Amino acid sequence: MNAKWITPAITALDRQGRVDLNGNAAFYNFLIEGGIDGILILGSIGEFFAIPMEQKKQLILHAIDTVKTRVPLYVGTGSMLLEECIELSNFALGHGADAAVVISPYYFQLPASSQIEFYEEIARNISGPMILYNFPARTGYSLSADTVLKLAVKHDNIVGIKDTTDEMSHTRSLIQTVKNVRPEFAVYSGFDEYFMHNLLCGGDGCIAGISNFAPRLLSELVRAARSDDLESAARYQKKVDALMEIYNIGSQFVPIIKEAVSQCGVPISAKCTAPLPQVSSKQREEIRSLLKKAGLLS
């Protein structure tokens, strides 16, 4: 099976809440050494919504220089300001990013015609590939398979989608509808537990959060899937399913994932951008217990 696991990376911050370049470098190396297939910076887990443009550009340049093409590097460039989205996409692509990942506009529930207009304007004005990002829990609406097909047929530089929806039937519909016309169009699930279901439907894998702190486990799962070793893949998938409990530890998953990364030995602070909550002592112990049970702590 064709299988990839791309990490939607957390953004390490210093005690003052600014981007911590050294911490992020250590984290990217942790992911690459763990065997992950690619890194997405400035996604939802990466707190793109609360990082100023200047610091985003600084992080992009630093990530490109640190990763050094060892794995593909994708950059979240979504913004409610269309011009800013285009500017940041071209900045990232112009300096060597492999694709811009663009979430659909949020706040208002846009009709399909407005969704298409938004993405077409970006596709026409950027200098490289774009991956669509569907996250209805945050935007208030979903990109339909028909909408994605219309965009994919018209614009060759729209090369895939991250489908962060808790309805596998939606992802399956994307796979069946779009890949039937553009087989190379990549369809990734945004929830870790759907990895094998995604592949068995003909998709490409996951861009999902558990790989932030368990990259080696996920790379082993990917390796088993690529080898069509379904017995091993099922065993690893069960471990992933057990780790899904991490999302229930707190109402906001970003600080929880950051704390897990820190507990797994990456020298970063678990600090998040305001007003995201910081991890409590009780949550810290729950995270440690889950990681120990999964065999991720020595």
The CATH class is Alpha Beta
> What amount of the residues lies in strands?
5-15%
Tell me, what's the shape? globular
Looking at CATH, which topology would you report? Answer: TIM Barrel
Main sheet record:
8 strands, parallel, barrel
Detail the poorly predicted runs.
none
Q: Which strand order spans the largest sheet, edge to edge or round the barrel?
A: 1-2-3-4-5-6-7-8
What's the gyration radius in Å?
Answer: 18 Å
Chain-averaged pLDDT: 97
Count of domain modules = 1
CATH level-4 homologous superfamily? Aldolase class I
CATH architecture: Alpha-Beta Barrel
**Class by alpha and beta content:** alpha/beta
Oligomer: single chain
Question: What would your notes on this structure say?
Answer:
The structure is a single chain. By secondary structure, the chain is an alpha/beta fold. The chain has a single domain (about 5-230), classed as TIM Barrel, CATH 3.20.20. It has 12 helices and 8 strands. It has an 8-stranded parallel beta barrel, surrounded by 6 helices. Strand 1, helix 1 (about 20-35) and strand 2 form a beta-alpha-beta unit. The two termini are about 30 Å apart. The model has no long low-confidence stretch (mean pLDDT about 95).
